[in-house]
Every structure is written in C-alpha cells, then in structure tokens.
Amino acid sequence: MRVLYHLPLSPFARKVRLVLAERRLPFELRLEKVWERRPEYLELNPACTVPTLVEDSGLVVPDSAVICEYLEEAYPDMTLLGLNMPERVESRRLVKWFDEKFFAEVTRNLLWEKTMKQALRLGAPEAGALRAGYANLKQHLLYIGWLAEHRRWLAGENLSLADFAAAAQLSSLDFIGDVDWSVSPAAKDWYARMKSRPAFRAVLADRINGQAPPPHYADLDF
Amino acid sequence: MRVLYHLPLSPFARKVRLVLAERRLPFELRLEKVWERRPEYLELNPACTVPTLVEDSGLVVPDSAVICEYLEEAYPDMTLLGLNMPERVESRRLVKWFDEKFFAEVTRNLLWEKTMKQALRLGAPEAGALRAGYANLKQHLLYIGWLAEHRRWLAGENLSLADFAAAAQLSSLDFIGDVDWSVSPAAKDWYARMKSRPAFRAVLADRINGQAPPPHYADLDF
Fold first, then answer.
1. Is some CB atom of chain A closer than 8 A to the CB atom of B73?
2. B85/A93 touch (CB, cutoff 8 Å), yes or no
3. Nearest residue, CB atoms, A66 vs list B70, B73, B96
4. Closest CB to B59 among A63, A89, A92
5. B73, B86, B92 ranked by CB distance to A88: nearest
6. Integer CA distances (angstroms), A3 to A12, A44, A122, B220, in order
7. Which chain B residue has its CA at the smallest distance from A86's CA?
8. Engineered SS bond to B199: which of A135, B21, B90, B163, CB 3.0-4.6 Å?
9. DSSP H helical ranges for chain B
10. Contact B78/A at CB under 8 A
11. In chain B, which residue's Cα lies nearest the Cα of A83?
12. d(CA B67, nearest CA chain A) in Å
C-alpha cells in the first residue's frame, strides 16, 4: 500500500492528502515527527520535511510540490493543473501563492507560534507574529473571495490544485479556530464547496492527540 | 521578443536566464525594481517578485518554478527534468532543495544582508545572519561536492534543472565574492563545468551599476 508520511496539522501534508483522495489513490498515513530526525526518514527525504510519498514500486517522492507534479505525470487520467497553457500557468501561480506567500505571511505566524513552538518548548507565541498573521489572513481571505467572485474555482473554470493548496492552508488554521470566515462571504462559500467534496472527508474527521477541532470545523454548513 | 523581468542578483531570475539560454530561447532582459511596486508590474505578477516571463503571444508566466515547468511543457524538444519518473523526481527534489533550503539558509543570510538591505537603507548586515550564512554555505558546498562525486551531474547521469538551480544561487554569491571554493574541490570542479557552458556566458558578463565582480567570477579556470 502507498504510504504518506505526514504531520496532522502540516498544510503541505494536507494538500497531498486532499489530492490523493480527489484522485482516488488509496494510501496509508504514517505520522513522522520530523524534529526527531529519524535516520531512516532522512534517507527517504534529506530535507526532513513532511510529506513524503512512498509508492508501491518503492519510488520515494519527497516534498508536496514534487509529489503533486509527480501525480500529475504518473496518473494522467486526471489533471488538476488544467488542459491548456494559460490554465496550467494560473494554477501553478496560485499554488505557489498559497504554498509560499500565504504560508509565510499567515500559517507560519499563527500555526507555528500557537502549536509547534509550544509543543517543542521553544517559548510562548510572539505577539507581533500573531498580530501580523491575523492581519495578513484578512487580506488573503479578501483575495480568495475576490477570485471566487470572478471565477468558478480559484484558478478559473475548473477545480485545480490551487483550490487544494488554499484549502489545505485554511483547514489547518480552521482546526485551531483561527479563521474569521465573516471577513469574506465569497471565500466562505468557496470553502464550503471544498469541504463538501468527498476528498475532504478524512481531513474533516481528524482528531489530534484526542483533541477535537471547534464544532464548525467539520460542519459543511458553517 | 520574449521579455524577462529580472534583478541582476536574484538567484531565481538567474536560474531562468540560464535555462532560457540552455534552451536557446532568445529573450530581452528588463530590470524590475520590485520594491517600487509598479502598478503595471503588479498586474503581471501580483506577488511582485522576479522573474516574470512574457511570451510573444502575450502569455504572462510569473515565478521561476512556474516558468521552468512551463518551459518544460511548452518546448518539449528538450527536457531538463529527465526522461523517466525517478530522474524527474530527483531533479525536482533538488530544485526545491536549492530554491528553498539553500536560499533560506545561505543566500538570504548573505546576499540580502550585504546588498539589498543596504541598498534599501534597512540597516547594516546582522552579524548573526552572516555567521549562519557562511556556516550553512560550507555544509551546502560539501553536499554539492558529495553529489558531484557520486554522479555525473547533481541529479544523476544527465544535466538537469537541479544543476541550474544550484549554479544560480552560487553565481549570485560568487558575484559578491562570498564563496570559498576551497571547501570542496568536487563542488568547484562541477561549478567550473557549469561556467564553461555557453548558457553561462551572459551571466558571467554581468556588471551591476558599473560594479565588476571579483576576477575569479568569470574565470573558467578559477
């Protein structure tokens, strides 16, 4: 069985979980505490990040962006990038937007400060980081709302990897109750559509160390 | 004529300049001072980063990773990722390694602190960042050397995007005289092979604000 090494709140692992489910590719999840730097894991992925995918053939594919490009080429029955060049450019542009810009400006400031930093006993959350994270999240929600008002899905007419990249970041933040959905009704409506996809079910059923997310997290009509 | 918006020391713009030259795709370079946030440029690339490529057809392709995937699909006469899945995974893994890990651990600490920060009058270089940058650079040179000793090119038997991603980061640092090549003779030998490629010529001829790089920068036998 295909194996995906992950951490439950990693937005990059969530992106790949969503994409594998959307593509109906079964996989087994394995928790990888990357901070322990297990030698066996370092051999699979020298950067020691999650996720890493291991195929039945033994092929090891580290890094969420590398995995998503690999899946697009290895399972061409479904494309999540688009059928023509302008669509593929726009999907990939937005994937980078959410993987890099949204992550650096929002997710790292909130999720890292409020969960990982405390779990690893690296100190209390920094007030400045939290303030920046919430302010940036508002701007990003407005941008997502703007895209959702002008297009059927974030990158255009078709559902794409951009939707999963954005939803993955937001679902991690939503799990810790950090998303004020009232900022943008259009973004909320788009996210409700994402949550109601079958591919989202497993992510919505997540419990972490027995901890449940806020009630609206798994509510399709939040 | 195809246009590439760039900054001369941006390792990401350099990666695309090298790849376009390797693919023999002619282009015109245009300087984009991203910190000025020109409205016309924000329309091309809302993330306001360099590089951005504009094709003759008018197609706008922002972001070096998006551009390199686009070129691979739009000009399939040459592949810089490899012909089979394991090669493509390994090329992309290393591209991410240099674009993200090498950049965050080395280039940002040295190049940002020593050039951009001063140019934008954001203060003097931080001693801690410089120390970390030089220490990390040594480890990265040893890793490049290890790869070059075990393989013909960094990702395997064939020259790939991984070589250009690594060479682009290093050429920016070499321009400001920050690379101690004595750390790894194997890395130095690999970089000498990269420098002697015709695709490297324009990058080696760079002058920035009339400033010349150290003499060994353009020397093929340094």
1. yes
2. no
3. B96
4. A89
5. B73
6. 15, 12, 30, 46
7. B59
8. B21
9. 11-22, 39-44, 64-74, 85-96, 117-119, 127-150, 161-175, 185-195, 201-204
10. no
11. B73
12. 8
Q: Give residue-wise pLDDT tens across range A116-151.
A: 887 788 888 999 999 999 999 999 999 999 999 999
DSSP per residue, B44-79: H-TT--S-EEE-TT--EEESHHHHHHHHHHH-TTS-
Dig out the tokens for A85 from the structure.
């060049």
Give me the CATH code for the A85-197 domain, please. Answer: 1.20.1050.10
Residue B118 has pLDDT above 80, yes or no: no
d(CA B58, CA A7): 41
Containing A53, the helix (H) or strand (E) segment is: strand A52-54
Q: Which of A69, A74, A93 is nearest residue B92 as measured by Cβ atoms?
A: A69
Q: What is the ipTM of this complex?
A: 0.95
List the one residue out of A116, A110, A121 whose CA is nearest residue A50.
A116
List of chain B residues whose C-beta atoms are within 8 Å of the C-beta of residue A46: 97
